[in-house]
Amino acid sequence: MSSDDEIYMDSESEEEQEEEVEDQILDEKGLRADMKQQIAEIQSTVEVSEGVGRLLLQKHKWNKDSLTDKFYESPDRITFLIESNVHPKECVPVETGEGDCDICCETTELVGLSCNHRCCKECWNSYLTEKIKEGQSEIECMDSRCKLLLDDEKVEEFLTDSSIIATFHRLILNKYVSSNVFLKWCPGVDCGKAVKSTHCDPHLVTCTCGTGFCFYCTNEWHDPVNCHHMRLWMKKCGENAETATWIINNTKDCPKCLAQIEKNGGCNYIRCTNPACGYQFCWICMNSWSVHAQAWYNCSSFDQAAESNREKYRTNLDRYIFYYNRYRGHQQSLKLESKLIRKVEKKMDKMQEKGMSFSDVQCLRHAVDVLSVCRQTMMLTYVFAYYLDKNNHSLIFEANQKDLEMATEQLSGFLERELEDEDLTTLKQSVQDKSRYVEHRRKRLLDHCADGNEQNHWVFIE
């Protein structure tokens, strides 16, 4: 038995050890049913219509406990509703009858709310249509001084266009998901489903459309990097990825505002092109031009402090490029995964032609999946390392990272091998052993990162 097998045998699979997370994948119909169920629970407590119940829950970000606490703390039901900017029907009778509409000045039947701010149905329809087109699902009374919210039933009563009513329903559903910490839209293209979780902490979610993402930030799953550092990294990549190397080789930084400046002429007099700066300095010594002009000899003297500041900035940029290149390398390998799959499938066919069974060669296809997962992890470990400050625990992390990097490349090498002059049984065993070892090392690295988070071993730098 190989040492790789010995390491693997006593360890449970990663799926068995991961904490079970009960997530529900809901389509539009399921979301509406879920929303109505929560509203119904509040209706029985506060004794309001479905539309008012929805507004109350929306105000409390769909936290039923928060809403009921406020309700029972209030002196009475009427006070609670009025303070929530919704009126019960029994609170104030709604005036009816004809009159002059304050909006269009026509004499016609006027309708309104319990606040008795009234206008004609056509003006209500126009007002509500405009608000819905602006993306509002909680709409206040037309009177600018009144904060009373129209319940959903009243909005539908005043609207005449079925397409606008349908848009209003979609806005309600979108707001239900976006304001509820236990719900997230799947970011998959044209998916339209949402995930409901029992907790809002970062964890991997896999939608029925096949999209995997982080529940907390809805970006691609990024373990072991936390959501904050992942956002910083993506922003930094967007700003620096294509230009970092060119900047180092061809520019200097304005001594005042640190804007990158390219010298496009022979004169060493430079004026910063940043409109908010305009600093004038010498390209050689980087001092203010006025100081430089009065003391030319300083241009040939070495200024340790100034040079140290520039070196520090350049060192930081070099450090970013170091980690970015390794991040990018695994990212590019992942983009070539489909090519590797085709190559491995051809190799599997050849192995079967040489006498191996279909089940025997499936280890190669499994190894491709293992390699893909490990490259994804390796890619993210360089983001983790970029923000990680040096200490004894970071040295252990780097050792685990190095082991996984080496094992991942070895597995990749096995899959890329040509079959000529290969012992197929030995190749199959090597691929199986290395796949198991890589899975084991990946788990060890992620466990170490998770333990470090729990025990506050990591020190991060921004």
TrEMBL record:
Top-level taxonomic group: Eukaryota
EC number, UniProt record: 2.3.2.31
Domain RING-type, first and last residues per copy: 97-303
Name of the protein: RBR-type E3 ubiquitin transferase
InterPro entries in UniProt: Ariadne (IPR045840), ARIH1-like_UBL (IPR048962), E3_UB_ligase_RBR (IPR031127), IBR_dom (IPR002867), Parkin-like_IBR (IPR054694), TRIAD_supradom (IPR044066), Znf_RING/FYVE/PHD (IPR013083)
PROSITE patterns: TRIAD
Reactions listed under catalytic activity: [E2 ubiquitin-conjugating enzyme]-S-ubiquitinyl-L-cysteine + [acceptor protein]-L-lysine = [E2 ubiquitin-conjugating enzyme]-L-cysteine + [acceptor protein]-N(6)-ubiquitinyl-L-lysine
Sorted UniProt keywords: Metal-binding, Repeat, Transferase, Ubl conjugation pathway, Zinc, Zinc-finger
One of the Pfam families matching this protein, by short name: IBR_2
UniProt record similarity statement: Belongs to the RBR family. Ariadne subfamily.
GO terms, biological process: protein ubiquitination
GO molecular function ontology, one term from the record: zinc ion binding
Compositionally biased residues, Acidic residues: 1-25
Top class in the EC scheme: transferase
